[in-house]
Amino acid sequence: MNKQRTKIRIVRASAYLWGLFCFFLLLKPNLKSTVVLPQWLIIFPVDKIVHFTLWFIWISLYEYSKPSVFIKPLYFYLWVVISIPLSEWLQYYMNWGRTADFFDILADVIGLLFGLLITRFLKNKAP
Asked: For a tag on the chain, would you pick the N or C end, based on fewer CB atoms within 10 A?
C-alpha cells in the first residue's frame, strides 16, 4: 500500500509540473520560426493539436493519480477551469507575438474532456 501511495504522489507531482510546463509553452514569446510542414499536416492546425495534447496529458496525469476512494479535489478542477481562459487572456494582453483565439480555448476544453473521459474509462475498466 505504501508503494502505491508513493506512486500516486509521484504522478500527482508530475501533473502539477506538467501544468506549469503548459503555462510556459502557452505564454512563451513567439519566435517566428519558419517550419516546413508536410502537406498532409497542414490540413490540421498544428497549434490546436498542441493545445489539445497539452490539456489531454495534464488532466490524464491528474486523473490517473487520483485514487477513486478520495473526495475529488474541487480546487484542482476550479484551477483548470480558470486557467483555460486565463492563458488565452494573458496571450492577448502580454503582446509577445502570441494571439488569443477562441478555437484554442475549444481545443483546450476538448483535450481536457477527452483526457477526463478516457482516463476514467480506463480506471473503471482496470481490475
From this structure: C
